[in-house]
Each structure stands twice: as structure tokens, then as C-alpha cells.
Amino acid sequence: MSREEAIVWVGWTPHWMNLELPMRYLEDPENLFGENNGESDVRTLLRSDYANAHPALVTFFEQFSFTADEQSWMIQAFGQEERDLAEVAQQWIHDHPERVEAMLADVTTTEGDAAWPVIEARLP
């Protein structure tokens, strides 16, 4: 790097290195890492009886998502900067209220009220 020469290594996302290093991903025309460069989804599973008893939770988890860049930021803040996990989460929520609102669309409290106004009122 000090000679400003290209370096090739296997990298992945999400990872903090994507935020710190001037890097780009090479094409994989032979699908060595799988379709879409090995892209995958992480899913939340609930027991069917629990899901049936808590439909608002199911709705929330269906809408719960983070981009790879957001995950990279979280990994960096928690893993590299050693910030408290709750602090990292609170900062993300504070910085992205529109995303939280979208994740809570059509989600209700146990009393049947819209979840977003309840959460929004508790934000710092």
C-alpha cells in the first residue's frame, strides 16, 4: 500500500474493511463464490405457534433489514472501535428514524396502537 500498488485478496461484505480501505470488488464471471458473488440473506425464524400468537412481530421481522454498508458500520463501531453495542444501536436508530419507521409500518403494540409513534416518542 505504501508503494500505491494494487493488492488482490479475498474480501467480503459486510465488513469494516469496506469503510477503511480504498477497495473495489472484481468481477467473478465464473461464479467461483456462487451466484451474485455468493450473496446471501440472513433470516429470522419463529416457531409457528409463536408467530401465530404474535402477528405484529412477524410483520416487524418481515420488514427488518439492514444494508451491507449499515452492517459494515455497525461491525466497525462495535468490533473495531469497541463501542458499547447498545450505544451503536441507539446511534443507528437516532440517525435513521425513517428506516425504523419503515420497519414498523403496520406493526402494532400489544394494545393495538401503531408502534412507530410509541417508539418515536421514546427516542432521545
List keywords for this structure.
single chain; 124 residues; mainly alpha; extended
Shape: extended
DSSP summary: helix tally: 7
Structural class: mainly alpha
Based on DSSP secondary structure assignment, what is the total number of beta strands?
0
- Overall pLDDT metric: 93
Give a quick rundown of the structure.
The chain is mainly alpha-helical. Helices cover 47% and strands 0% of the residues.
Question: Could you please describe the fold and organization of this structure?
Answer:
This protein is mostly helical and 124 residues long. Helices cover 47% and strands 0% of the residues. The protein has helices spanning 17-20, 48-53, 55-63, 68-80, 85-95, 97-103, 115-122. The termini are far apart. The model has no long low-confidence stretch (mean pLDDT 93).
Helix and strand topology:
Blueprint: H1 17-20, H2 48-53, H3 55-63, H4 68-80, H5 85-95, H6 97-103, H7 115-122
